[in-house]
Design goal:
The complex is a heterodimer.
Chain A (H helix, E strand, L loop, with lengths): L1 H26 L8 H4 L7 H9 L3 H17 L9 H10 L9 H11 L4 H14 L3 H14 L5 H21 L1 H15 L6 H13 L3 H14 L3 H17 L4 H17 L1
Helix pairs in contact in A: 3-4, 4-6, 6-7, 7-8, 7-9, 8-9, 9-10, 9-11, 10-11, 11-12, 12-13, 12-14
Chain B lengths: L1 H5 L15 H6 L4 H18 L1 H23 L4 H34 L3 H5 L5 H33 L6 H28 L2 H14 L3 H10 L3 H13 L19 H28 L3
Helix pairs in contact in B: 3-7, 4-5, 4-7, 5-7, 5-8, 5-9, 7-8, 7-12, 8-9, 8-12, 10-11
The chains are: A mainly alpha, B mainly alpha.
């Protein structure tokens, strides 16, 4: 009788436990990707540390330790260049890109796959690879991964836009012109978001202007004149629109439409 | 002997009450809650007097101080590294103290025979188990809170900012420790060997962080028998990800509904472990 009662109590507790587990599961969103991405983790250095950190529930701390390794690598001598000279020459012939700090991308990827919500390594890596080491494809790869993980963290798109604006020719040379079109689309998608910052819109306008797509740029500036709450941004947008009109970059139909919208905006103010 | 400890004896009103000492209060009657409280109190004192307890707290202090060095190595990420390393140290040492204390909680008293002193008195077995568990948890809780205070001071000096998620993560670390120590107590009574109990608990500590991976695999396994086995394992092993807020500090504390269910889940897991521990303890002959 007592055993039966104990068994029944245990069963009730077990059912309650499983129900609570299911209830918690419904309201819990696991923020990390399934283990398939772990297999792609470039754990060629200290794999035990990475796996051990995940198993003990210390993902962020493991990512921090991996980040210290990145800084030590990037701040130190380029150990890979201590290898024999013939090997280095052969490698440079195979890949004419700047091969300084050749392991920087995999080392940063290790950090960001451990903790994809730490924005700093993405930005640091993109800046180092894009402007210092000039391996644009790797910088772009890093930013794309950042945008995939957190599409509304706008500095990613700002970095991408800045890279495109300052190094478009080089990116076209190393990645092809189709790739630059794809990259512009990342910024266009971000600009459609209601919370997109005005600075990113200005940057997209500048990119269009540089590519001589004046009416597309004018569309962006016009939108800013109508909607921005920042006086400085409104002034820059108006100045650029006026410059387009004076330089004859816009079609007559566009200018007529522009006049109407500007008059309406002034009347509303 | 076993039977006498199952049923509380009626207290003789003519027996003089020895007011000195906590055990005397327990043995001289009082309701179940009071007995549990008294046992908890003496377990708390016992743990606080334990030298290992101080060694671990000292080690935690050294580790927290070393986070300054790691923080400096992290460049612009200094406060982030100090936060993560501190939380990691607090959790790991908290769990280690709790697991070792839980494993020896009853076993040590059984080996030294001091358990007879308590069990010959009118105390139910489950009251003893619960009292010992709560006392040990209070001691570990004190150590966790003192480590967290030291960490907060350190972060304050370094200019770190505190979000609600930081304090919520400390609370969930305590809940994780409570779950794992209840489990350690169960294994210690199940296996009656301190080493195997620690090994089992550490295994569940690790497996508890693989809950989401198990669920992912269960969704992809074709074999129905294996699928059921995987799902069963997923539900039986504690999903410690729920209590691992320190790994998702950037996502905030989460919705209130999650907290309601997660707290319920943690408390029920503890209840199941303690219930099974009581059953095992009841079956033991002294």
């Amino acid at each position: 009788m007592s055993t039966a009662r104990s068994g029944l109590t245990f069963l009730i507790l077990l059912v309650a436990l499983i129900t609570a587990h299911m209830g918690t599961r419904r309201h819990y969103k696991h923020p990390f990707e399934p283990p398939t991405t772990l297999t792609a983790l470039p754990v060629w250095r200290n794999p035990a540390l990475d796996v051990g950190g995940i198993l003990l529930g210390m993902r962020r701390l493991t990512a921090d330790l991996a980040w210290i390794e990145v800084l030590q690598y990037y701040g130190g001598a380029e150990m890979e260049f201590l290898e024999d000279e013939a090997k280095k020459v052969r490698r440079l012939k195979e890949d004419p890109r700047d091969l300084r700090y050749i392991h920087l991308l995999p080392l940063i990827q290790r950090v960001i796959r451990l903790d994809p919500y730490d924005h700093y390594p993405f930005l640091f890596g993109a800046a180092a690879l894009g402007w210092q080491i000039k391996r644009y494809d790797e910088a772009v790869q890093l930013i794309k991964e950042g945008i995939r993980m957190d599409p509304t963290f706008w500095p990613y798109q700002l970095y991408l836009g800045a890279l495109l604006y300052t190094r478009e020719k080089e990116i076209r040379g190393s990645m092809g012109s189709n790739e630059t079109e794809t990259l512009i689309k990342y910024i266009e998608r971000a600009v459609e978001h209601p919370e997109c910052p005005d600075d990113l819109k200005i940057l997209l306008g500048s990119l269009y202007t540089k590519r001589k797509q004046y009416e597309k740029a004018a569309g962006i500036y016009l939108g800013l004149v109508q909607k921005t709450k920042r006086e400085g941004i409104r002034q820059i947008s108006e100045e650029r629109l006026m410059r387009f009109v004076r330089s004859g970059f816009l079609s007559r139909a566009f200018i007529t439409e522009l006049d109407k919208v500007l008059a309406e905006t002034t009347r509303q103010k | 002997m076993s039977r006498s400890s199952e049923k509380p004896e009626a207290h003789d009103p003519h027996t003089p009450i020895n007011t000195r000492g906590i055990v005397s209060f327990v043995t001289n009657g009082g309701v179940g809650v009071n007995k549990i409280f008294a046992i908890s109190l003496y377990t708390l004192y016992e743990n606080i007097r334990n030298k290992i307890f101080y060694v671990l707290i000292l080690f935690a202090a050294v580790m927290l101080a070393s986070s300054i060095l790691f923080g400096a190595l992290g460049g612009d990420q200094e406060t982030r590294i100090i936060t993560n390393l501190g939380l990691g140290v607090i959790e790991t040492l908290g769990i280690l103290v709790a697991v070792f204390a839980s494993v020896t909680l009853v076993l040590e008293e059984m080996e030294s025979k001091t358990i007879y002193m308590v069990l010959v008195r009118p105390i139910r077995r489950h009251e003893y188990v619960l009292g010992r568990y709560l006392g040990m948890l209070a001691a570990v809780g004190l150590s966790v809170v003192s480590m967290a205070l030291a960490h907060v001071v350190l972060l304050q000096i370094k200019g770190g900012d505190f979000s609600a998620a930081y304090f919520a993560s400390i609370f969930l670390i305590l809940l994780k420790i409570a779950v794992l120590s209840a489990m350690a107590l169960f294994w210690s009574l199940f296996s009656t060997s301190a080493i195997s109990s620690v090994a089992f608990t550490v295994f569940f500590w690790i497996a508890g962080h693989l809950g989401e991976e198990m669920r992912f695999l269960a969704g992809r396994i074709g074999n129905p028998a294996l699928k059921i086995l995987m799902k069963l394992t997923y539900y039986l092993i504690p999903n410690l990800h729920y209590f691992n807020l320190k790994d998702r500090l950037d996502q905030g504390i989460g919705p209130a509904a999650f907290w309601f269910w997660a707290l319920g889940y943690g408390l029920l897991y503890i209840a199941v472990c303690l219930y099974l521990s009581s059953l095992l303890f009841k079956k033991k002959e002294f």
